[in-house]
Amino acid sequence: MTILTAVIDGNPLPAQRTRSARGRHYNTDTYDTELNRLAAEFRMAWGVIEPLQGDVMMRVVWYRQTNHPVDIDNLGKALQDAAVRAGVMGDDRQIKAAPPLLEVDRNNPRLVVGFYTADTAEYKEYRRRQLLWAMTIRNAVIQEP
Predict the structure, then answer these.
(1) What letter does residue 52 receive in the DSSP assignment?
(2) In a domain, 38, yes or no
(3) Run of H or E residues at 127
(4) pLDDT for the residue 17
(5) In which domain, by residue range, is 108 found?
(6) What domain count does the chain have?
(7) Which residues are CB-contacts of 143 (< 8 A; sequence separation ≥ 6)?
(8) What are the counts of helices (DSSP H) followed by strands (DSSP E) for the chain?
(9) How many CB atoms within 10 Å of residue 117?
(10) Is residue 21 classed as helix, strand or coil in its secondary structure?
């Protein structure tokens, strides 16, 4: 059973599209710098750890300086890429659930993140609630005339 949590200061940057030139694919320097920063923050919070095994849930709340529209999926992707880079997990495909929340805090931009393995109570409870929600929706659709 593994739970890893951290609070990371700064205004989070979303993942950017991979660029290509002369048949080569690359990330921009800005995005690469952000991934390195996040990976270093993970290592400072948890040290060098064995990568998480099996299914993982990533819970995250982003506190951004503005309410400027942002693609929340791209924020999550950057965090997942940094977690892989830091050795938190071997592959971001291990993440089976990633409930996000986006908030505004002009004075203290940060992100609060937690990684939970499938054997934790948090993962099991989230999964149970999601399945219950899906059954409720399914039953409502079936009962409509």
Answers:
(1) B
(2) yes
(3) helix 121-143
(4) 60
(5) 3-118
(6) 1
(7) none
(8) 3, 7
(9) 19
(10) strand
* Residues with Cβ within 8 Å of residue 58, at least 6 apart in sequence: 76, 79, 80, 83, 95, 97, 98, 113, 114, 115, 116
Stated as kind and residue range, the H or E segment containing 61 is strand 56-64
The pLDDT value recorded for residue 105 is 95
**Confidence (pTM):** 0.82
* Cα angle value 145/140/57 (rounded, 5°): 155
Residue 134 lies in a domain: no
145 falls within a domain: no
Instruction: Please answer whether residues 75 and 100 qualify as being in contact, where contact means their C-beta atoms are separated by less than 8 angstroms.
Output: yes
Give domain status of residue 131, yes or no: no
What is the model's pLDDT at position 11? Answer: 83
Residue type, 134: A
Domain harbouring 113, CATH code? 3.30.1330.70
Assign residue 27 a region: left if phi > 0, alpha if psi is -120 to 50, beta otherwise? beta
